[in-house]
Amino acid sequence: MADKKSAVISYVDSSNNKGSKTITDLADKIANSKVWAFCNALNSLSTNTISQVDLVEKTDITNAEYKPELELNLHTSNIESIAFGDKKLTSVTYGLDGEQPNLSVEYYFEKSDGSVAHICAATIMFSANWSDSTRNIYVFSETTGCSALQITKLIADLHFAETDSTLATTYRLTVAEGETTTFERI
Amino acid sequence: MADTVKQSYQLKLVAGFADGDERTISYDNPRPNITAEEIIALNSLAKGVLVGDKYGAEFSIFKDAGIATTTQVDLDLSTQP
After folding, report:
1. How many domains does chain B have?
2. I need a labelling partner for A118 at 20 to 30 A (CA). Which of A63, A132, A154, B71 fits?
3. Is the CB of residue A171 less than 8 Å from the CB of residue A185?
């Protein structure tokens, strides 16, 4: 009988300890992407954060084709407002670096009364110099249904679109005046 | 010092194969809120990936899933010379 593949899932647990799990007896002709999709789905049932999946065929380890989940890092964020009479222009700048992704983004603004207004959705195809780029969003308060000086926070849900839905990832960027910017996977 | 008690958790998935064989896959640190629907959804991703370890039979379904708890008491050995 032919040798079968194994997959070694490397992960970090919630206490930041590294661990791994070997899944043996995988079909030898199966596409690697199917193996990774299964491993990601299995890992999603845990509190672990997957870091790598290696495929093992006999004693050879091949991971050159492995496409890990998207990792984005926030390197710039700022929110500024300028009032014009009873209107307000809010400018939000953020910059991300990481593997160049295709993202669709949903923008929300939180108002001073705590309510959240959906602003717009956009599909963004980032350019090759993506890691150096920043994005600016300008919104007049009247377009959000807010009166002047009511916008206090930007929430941007960045959906990483992957053809295999099991690899899809959403990051939430929250930028607020006078508060710590947060950027987390949700 | 005193004895310490450690608890660990493992997800146990019992995979069934076309030849009637079964194999248990264990995975550490399961989420406490795993649903049956999530296990059922995993079936479609396992098809064609997992094969039986005897004859390479096709995966059929996950026949059972549960979270096993292991309690380990580490004895205090600090008093030994």
Report:
1. 1
2. A132
3. yes
Q: Which residue of B has its CA nearest to A30?
A: B49
- Tell whether A4 lies on the interface with B, counting CB pairs under 8 A: yes
Shared-domain flag, residues A115 and A43: no
For residues B81 and B50, give the distance between their C-alpha atoms in angstroms, rounded to a whole number. Answer: 51
Share of chain B above pLDDT 70, in %: 99
Terminal CA-CA length for chain B:
15
ipTM here: 0.89
Is residue A17 within 8 angstroms of chain B, CB to CB? no
> Which of A70, A67, A21 lies closest to A43 in space, CA to CA?
A21
Asked if residue B15 is part of any domain, the answer here is yes
Mean pLDDT of A149-161: 69
A56 occurs within a structural domain = yes
* Residue B54 structural domain: 4-74
pLDDT confidence bin for A3, thresholds 50/70/90: low
Query: Which chain A residues have a beta carbon less than 8 Å from that of B46?
Result: 38
Res B76: pLDDT? 87
